[in-house]
Specification:
Elements: H1 2-21, H2 26-43, H3 58-75, H4 77-94, H5 96-104, H6 115-132, H7 136-146, H8 148-154, H9 158-167, H10 178-187, H11 191-225, H12 249-260, H13 276-295, H14 298-303, H15 305-335, H16 338-348, H17 352-371, H18 374-381, H19 385-392, H20 396-411, H21 418-427, H22 431-454
Length: 455
């Protein structure tokens, strides 16, 4: 029966992958597939996931799983992600995001004679920005408006400029990241501790590797296409900063608050510990004060708060609902014995904890490529890790860290990812062409990450 469940699981994974490649709605695909797997599990008398309150009829219990997933998600990581989405929308509305990008991009102008070095330097600078502006599409569009013209004027092709801009979102990390919040929820550790002790030590060598690989890959492709010097007349003008430069503080304020008021510092006799959601709301009201001081119109400033609520709503209908449907999909896999089969396969093959960690990281990387969403793949497979790690006698963090980073890395080489589609449209290039530029550096980074982390 175990092999039957694994076989059915693999069939569903293949079907879901094919439908996602054909650009069917991922929310609907994951939800329907999850419910079907749960129904099949009941018919085949597999062990069903536990419910807090059963309805008394299995047909209704299937939909009870959806309700309980909503309750669990919205009370925890869902609210955090919505607050981040609202904050990102608001700082974009008031121009604080533009101010931060304006400040961060100043050093690039020093490399007028070394355009490909300048392009490669975008990656670490952009990654720092990504920890403060944790929206892949949002940050990339900001960089397309501000940095894209500079890079093309320096002498790199449009494709080279777009590729490094999308590469800035390759590592979903930092306390403001929704995928980081979910990882911390799964392994039950503070987000700042995870960020400083786990993410930063693993990401910095990957940033260096990507700077090197993008330098050679983009130079090779531009030389091959004969397009390393494009007409500067075709380049859009650089936007001028229309807000006070001090606004650059606002996007990084949540990170500053979370670091200062964490277990890393003991500034007060009574410890003060902030969570990410609270830090977002504090930073929002600081932003409102900045706007009131600048505009001196209290009514307009208070009215602008609807941007925050709309941002929360947009994140709910896209990301949070995706988390919930991915959770149902994961429950379906669990009910069919997919996890037990994966563990048995790893043990029989002699993989152990390292082998299964590598398999899971590669699986999520490929799933993100298919889905175009790092959140979808990680939220589907991430909750499975504690059970796997406990069975193998491994630390949950050691397995989940590369999985979490692989999810966002895979999104960067997905032709159906929102960030790739949006930037390709602005630059008037094809999504496949961007993916070709990104594939080699991200594959190299994946190999380096798994080697550096496990060996």
């Amino acid at each position: 029966m175990q092999y039957l469940g694994i076989g059915i699981s693999l069939i569903f994974i293949v079907i879901v992958a094919r439908l996602l490649l054909k650009k069917h709605n991922p929310h609907a695909i994951l939800l329907v597939a999850g419910l079907l797997m749960l129904a099949i599990s009941y018919i085949l008398n597999f062990q069903m996931p536990a419910l807090k309150n059963e309805t008394g009829f299995v047909g209704f219990d299937l939909f009870r799983y959806i309700k309980e997933s909503f309750i669990k998600t919205n009370a925890g990581v869902g609210l955090m992600i919505m607050s981040i989405g609202g904050f990102v929308a608001y700082i974009d509305h008031i121009g604080a995001s533009r101010a931060l990008v304006f400040v961060a991009m100043k050093p690039l102008k020093l490399f007028k004679k070394k355009p490909y070095i300048a392009a490669s330097m975008v990656i670490p600078i952009g990654q720092v920005l990504f920890t403060a502006i944790p929206s892949a599409a949002g940050l990339s569009l900001l960089l397309m408006a501000s940095l894209f013209p500079i890079l093309v004027q320096l002498g790199v092709s449009k494709l080279s400029a777009v590729s490094v801009i999308t590469a800035t979102t390759a590592f979903g990390m930092g306390p403001a990241s929704g995928i980081t919040g979910k990882a911390c929820e799964i392994i039950d550790i503070p987000v700042i501790e995870y960020f400083i002790d786990s993410q930063i030590p693993l990401v910095w060598p990957l940033c260096i590797s990507m700077m090197i690989t993008y330098y050679f890959v983009n130079k090779y492709f531009d030389r091959k296409a004969g397009s390393n010097h494009e007409s500067k007349q075709e380049v859009l003008h650089q936007n001028r900063l229309d807000v006070p430069i001090i606004y650059a503080i606002i996007p990084i304020l949540p990170i500053v608050l979370l670091i200062i008021f964490s277990k890393l510092f003991t500034l007060f006799s009574t410890p003060i510990i902030l969570d990410t959601t609270t830090a977002m709301f504090i930073s929002l009201f600081v932003a409102l004060i900045f706007e009131w001081v600048r505009k001196r119109n209290l009514k307009d400033v208070l009215d602008s708060l609807k941007i925050f609520w709309n941002g929360m709503g947009n994140i709910f209908k896209t990301v949070v609902t995706l988390i919930i449907t991915a959770d149902i999909f994961a429950k379906g896999l669990i009910s069919l014995g997919f996890i037990e089969g994966l563990i048995a396969f790893a043990q029989n093959a002699g993989f152990g904890a390292i082998g299964i960690g590598i398999v899971m990281a590669v699986m999520i990387f490929l799933a993100s490529m298919l889905m175009g969403s790092g959140n979808a793949s990680f939220f589907a497979f991430g909750p499975l890790v504690p059970k796997i790690s406990s069975s193998l006698g491994a630390e949950t963090t050691s397995i989940i860290l590369p999985m979490q980073l692989s999810a966002s890395m895979g999104r960067t080489v997905s032709p159906v990812a929102g960030v790739i589609i949006a930037t390709a449209e602005i630059a008037q290039v094809s999504t496949i062409a961007i993916v070709k530029r990104n594939l080699i550096p991200l594959t190299v980074a994946l190999i380096i990450m798994l080697t550096y982390h496990y060996i």
